[in-house]
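Suppose a colleague, Dr. K., hands you the sequence of a protein chain of 450 amino acids and asks what its three-dimensional shape might be. Before reaching for any lab equipment, you can write down a predicted structure in token form. Begin with the sequence itself:
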Amino acid sequence: MDTETLEHGIMLSQMKADHKALSSTLAALAQSQFPPKAEKNLRKFAASEAAIYLGITPRYLALTADEMGLEVEKVGRGERRYYSLEQMNQIRVYLAEKAGDDTAKALNYDPRRKADEDIQIIACSNFKGGSAKTCTSVHLAQYMALQGYRILLVDLDPQGSASSMLGFVPEMVSEDDSLFASIRYDDPRPMSEVVQKTYFDNLDLAIGSPFLTEWEFFAPHYATLAGQEEPGLRNRIADIEDEKKQKGISNKRLRELEEELARNHAKLSDCLQRKLYFTRLQLAFEDVEDAYDIIICDTPPSLGYLSNAASFAADHLLVTIHPQWIDCESMAQYLATSIAHNEFFESTVAKQLGPEYLVPKTLQYLITRHDNTSRPETDVVTMLRTQLQNVLTSTMLRSSAIAEAGNVQQTLYEAERSNFNGKTYDRALDSVNRVNSELEELLKSYWGRS
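The predicted structure, expressed as tokens, is then:
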């Protein structure tokens, strides 16, 4: 064995040993911190906070809860009221029904989309780590759920960070219970059977896990094989069509040809689905469209096959930007690569399926982790707003409150304000709310709501 081969063998052996040691340690830690039967719970909301989410006064909230006969938690001598998110959503529905024919008023209480309004799909993307994609995705998902929308959060990152934030341990989730099961090529499961309920009412999750790395490997493999199969199938279909046109063909032979034609069209359809790998997530979503108002995709920090599938499925691409020059250079590369990918997707779909399968999409930019006291960062923000279209007016500020909440797998919506410096928490929450409210208004505009 030569020296180079020996060195490679030593490196691989070390990798295996290190992986085994680290994995066993992390598994033991996960078992101690997240026992198999442990469940994450959402805090209850004080009357003042619940009233703000519902758009009513605390007094009217109390009167409505009593009118409905809800068993509300009361604390202390003053019997301060606390409401669960489930109770808040029950109140939403009750008030919307009470509004009767006043559609605008009913929608303010219960904003779920109507039968003539299409589901909206958002993909949060950037191929550079540290741009706050997961933080943005989870906070947006929880904000929308708090507003009364039915949300599906789709964790496309094999690291499963969004899933961890919602109380799941990706390494302990079986393949059949992960998102991978609904997009794999061998015996895929319907998305409705993969989606998991969470402790956050109206917010469901398709769990990201290490199994997704397999899809990054198999997607190009199956696409290549499908590309090789397609010409033969098309030729056989053409031959069958020609034979059907021949004079004097017997009824028996015609029936045989019809059956063979149907089989080959089915094979061609399956072949195209494998070839057009980037449509696979979109097709998986069709199974759950009626159950949700908004789907939010948290993509991995790359422009690989998973990110491309999310981008193609999305109605709105939300690109997160950290306002530093090196991140802007990275984003310029991201845009160049995305342009090439999307041009290929659109031309391929138009050629293979028809231009009617292409739908308009929007591109929005969100400035994240912004230190608005930093002059250099402020200069970068000014440049971005000058050079780019559709940069959200609101920015997500850098905050120790967001970081500290994240350290214990919480968002600002879950964390207790009393655990932070009050002003720091309020400033961070206001920043996040402004961003999410702006995105909510964008979606409402696509439903034709003022």
